[in-house]
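hi! just following up on the protien thing from before. the input was this:
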Amino acid sequence: MPAKRSGGYQNRIELLQGTLDMLILNTLSLGPQHGYGISQAIRSGSSDLLQVETGSLYPALHRLEKNGWLKSAWKQTDNKQRAKYYGLTAAGRRRLADEQNRWHQMTAAIAALMSPRLDEV
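and the predicted 3d structure came back as:
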């Protein structure tokens, strides 16, 4: 998900490897959604800082489904379009919990490294 360097996208943040899967699982924990809805939820939930490109989103959805963390079904959208909706499986909910725990450990470790220690100042 490379960030474009011009216009309104210059402040976008690239996702750490593996973070997209967690964001997809987290988005779907709120209920089933189609691919475009998932990408819009991530974008709006991050105040437009994170934008998932189609070339990253759909391979991730297929991988998560292949791993048994998502299930899918074709349904009609509100505007009468046919779309594939994705939802979490029980295994997907367990995977999300594991990923959230790992994320909290990693962000705490990075925060500790980035904060100056009083004994080193």
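The chain has one domain: 7-115.
Residues 1-7 have pLDDT under 50 and may be disordered.
cheers
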